[in-house]
Design a protein that fits this description.
Length: about 270
């Protein structure tokens, strides 16, 4: 039976401390029967998927396009699916780009999935699934799913590099740790977090210390946000004495929406045990 409906979508903004107001819309249909379901699962089960980005919240509908900002985390909350004893509920996300190349894939028991879509010049196709499966797969692995797109808007702000100190565009904190000598190399580990104080997208391109250039992968941080728990290993030749000072000077090369900048920071150093 063909179902035709008119979907009205309005984006609702809300202030801090106020829960997002969500918009109801029709979910996609998957009418297969699964013996693992503890209770009947409606065809429109996935209409209950909530997406939140910034101050905007909405319920998903098939073929909806979400205009989140570039690198802005989008949190999807999938309704909990009840499974019989011996079966488990799973939730997954599958993302492809305009050329159908896989960008990201994840599956697990947590019904909350967050992803920051990296590029503003792409349209991403997203499939969210909720499914229940038995240990041996003999009871069906049946699913409910919804397909939609995300097209991030570009960050067009113009930002200055700033001045070292309080007016700097970013703050980098962490430490450098000696990992000892291996073969003909002195090994070190750089652990750091970075906070973007600007209104632009911050891209850490490289960090130079001990005459070594450490490529940063690159690390992108959206406006007014932080990226934590980054670890990068590097080495110096064994003929160079192992570093022994209490602090390490580092030159950070970065960009703000493409504008190239650099800044010198000092990080604490932990010597070899």
């Amino acid at each position: 039976m063909k179902i035709t409906s008119t979907i009205r979508v309005a984006l609702i903004t809300f202030s801090f401390f106020v829960a997002p107001a969500f918009i109801f819309a029709q979910g996609s249909v998957d009418s297969r029967i699964c013996n693992c379901f503890a209770a009947p699962v409606a065809d429109n089960f996935m209409q209950g998927v909530k997406a939140v980005y910034g101050k905007i919240g909405l319920y998903l509908s098939p073929n909806l396009e979400i205009p989140s900002q570039q690198l802005q985390p989008v949190k999807f909350t999938i309704p909990v699916i009840q499974s019989k004893q011996g079966c488990q509920s799973w939730y997954s996300i599958y993302i492809t780009d305009g050329q159908n190349n896989k960008v990201y894939e994840s599956a697990g028991r947590n019904n909350e999935i967050t992803y920051a879509f990296p590029d503003c010049d792409k349209t991403y196709a997203v499939v969210l699934m909720a499914y229940s499966k038995s240990a041996n797969g003999g009871d069906g692995n049946c699913t409910r799913r919804i397909t939609f797109t995300v097209k991030p808007t570009c960050n067009t702000a113009s930002c200055d590099c700033g001045i070292t100190g309080k007016s700097a565009a970013f703050a980098l904190s962490g430490e450098v740790q000696c990992k000892g000598r291996t073969g003909d190399e002195n090994r070190y580990l750089l652990r750091y977090s970075v906070t973007n104080k600007s209104s632009c997208i911050l891209t850490i391109q490289s960090i130079t210390m001990m005459n070594q250039v450490i490529e940063a992968s690159p690390s992108k941080v959206t406006a007014k946000s932080s990226l934590n728990g980054i670890s990068l290993g590097f080495a110096t030749p064994s003929k160079v004495p192992i570093y022994s000072d209490s602090k390490v000077s580092a030159v950070v090369r970065y960009s703000l929406n493409g504008r190239k900048c650099s800044e010198t920071v000092e990080l604490p150093y932990r010597g070899c045990n």
